Amino acid sequence: MVEPACSSARRSEWWRACADYLGLVGALVVLIVIFGGATRHFLSADTFRTIANQIPAAMLLATGMTLVLIVAEIDLSVGSVLGLCGAVVGVALTQWGWPLWAALAAALATGALCSAFNGLVSVRWRLPSFIVTLGMLEMARGGAHALTQSQTQYIGPAIGGIAETHLLGLSLPFLLAVAVVALGQATLSHSVFGRHMLAVGANEAAARLNGIDPRRIKATVFVGNGLLVALAAIVDTSRFQSANPNAGTGFELQAIAAAVIGGTSLMGGRGSVARTFLGVLIIAVLNSGLASVGAKDELKRLVTGAVIVAAVILDHYRHRLAQQTNR
Amino acid sequence: MNTRRPSGRWGLGCGVALASAIALTGCKPGESVRAPATGKPRVALIMKSLANEFFLTMENGAKAHQRAHADQYELIANGIKDELDVSRQIDLVEQMIAQRVHAIVIAPADSKALVPVCKKAHAAGIIVVNIDNKFDDAVLAASGVRFPFVGPDNRKGARLVGEYLARKLQPGDKVAIIEGAPNAFNAIQRKLGFEDAMKAAGMNIVSSQSGYWETDKANQVVAALITEHPDLKAVLCANDSMALGAVAALRAAGKLGQVHVVGYDNIAAVQQLLKEGKILATADQHADQLAVFGIEYALQILKTGEAPADRETPVDLVTAESLRRE
């Protein structure tokens, strides 16, 4: 199995990369084993198909959030922008009579515009994105309610096709989200732009001195994030065949939690889209398992919170270990 | 009376709003006894979340009523950002006291926390009418106040929905309840109503979990439940948004039509699903009439000076058949 050309340095690098994922995969396996033991039907193909069907929106949001966090920014508006994009799809289809492609294009444009606003305002006036996106959180939610007049829009099968298209037993949204995760990780670790993102996040001044334009990088990341949010909105609207103006409330915190469980630094300069995906899986398995057990609501929240904190503590040690072996 | 500590990021805004409200109405702090009404009485309607279709319908109903009776009263309608924002609703009541309205018609976001500030309004000579969500009887008794209540019996409404569902099931069938927010009075009442009907019909309630009124959360719970209990026959949801999430979970699992879904509130988005039979039944509490009843009560008290008895407003069962009859 050992490749003859593989030097020992290369192999140790490979091992470290594996160890990077080992903690998270281990945690995931432990959760699955616990819930498998506590219920009758958790360990079934149905459970995992259900989870795969539920998480595409969370995967897309968490991927975008990871990229934003890596360039040392934050986007608190993703839940509200998701609600607004969903509202655009719903109203365009049910009230304006637009064809499906036009409604989807309008949603993507809305997501990109909201994020471009976030990115340009925070970059142009050097404002903390925490505050700018907090403002957008309110504006986008207000927009969603204004568009729908606070009424859930029932769309019906017209949009259901997206979530109901299956390839090899997996839904189209899930495959799309997996492709986005793969593309995100490839950009991050194998492209010049990805290197620049990490450099800007780690030390903006140093990056600028090295000829990188942090403003351009950050604005690009924001707009890309907006497109992912719009995709997430389309996916969820298709799944529920309806657009609720309150959709996505609190999703920003779930996305941040998934990114942080996956070891993304809130200070920027460090993170991995693939590990964020594992973070999303951990949260999804936890939600599904606790519901299967029929746990009381107070217990669900206690356990979910505790798992997030425990994961971050574990990641702290993993990170320190990695730094020691680097020396 | 007007000393209040603004809290949180909205505090400053509220403080400014309150200050300008005082400035506009020329209220002197401490001056709490109202002069006899000159001109039309002013009625403040304080609702829960306007982000919720139910309360928006309520507000529109009240505004339409005011337009039709513009010679009889003025209406100041306010809501809060979300149903859990209890402190903002307390702020609103204080603002209305400062504006010296003649009556406050309130749907409390919390059946206990709003009692003290409403007592303050009462002491300032303002008529308080409780609508939609009833104040906690024990807290009212402890505070020594009583406010007339005008609203639906959520437990009875949920029982109606549950009884209709039971006719489609066999005794011993497995059912699950998706509750609303666990701290909400109406959520608890609806859950109890569902339980009453299911137990009376001999059904087996295998799980009762909260979906926090939301489509997405209910979807996650229902998806897990139908995997864990493959022979589940029905899901009873405490509102229609959660019923939409339940339908999505069944559709994804290919079980649409095998598991019955019922909801509550009769929002516009479920009409089509009711007609198609994907949602079996829901309940209509006539949100548009609810605030109107409360306002009429307040006007009546202002005129006669006597507090009438509590009044129960109608809750109707809505099914595919009842929609066809319309």
Write the layout of secondary structure elements.
The complex is a heterodimer of chains A (327) and B (326).
Chain A: H1 8-38, H2 45-54, H3 56-70, H4 78-94, H5 100-124, H6 129-148, E1 153-154, H7 157-164, E2 166-167, E3 170-171, H8 172-190, H9 192-202, H10 204-209, H11 214-240, E4 242-243, H12 251-261, H13 273-293, H14 297-326
Antiparallel strand pairs in A: 1-4, 2-3
Chain B: H1 8-25, E1 42-49, H2 53-68, E2 74-80, H3 86-98, E3 103-106, H4 115-123, E4 127-131, H5 137-143, E5 149-151, H6 154-166, E6 174-179, H7 185-200, E7 204-210, H8 215-228, E8 232-237, H9 240-252, E9 260-262, H10 271-276, E10 281-284, H11 287-304, E11 311-312, E12 316-319, H12 320-325
Parallel strand pairs in B: 1-2, 1-3, 3-4, 4-5, 5-11, 6-7, 6-8, 8-9
Antiparallel strand pairs in B: 10-12
Helix pairs in contact in B: 1-3, 2-11, 3-4, 6-7, 8-9
Summarize the structure.
Chain A is mostly helical and 327 residues long. Helices cover 77% and strands 2% of the residues of chain A. The interface between A and B is large, with 42 and 39 residues.
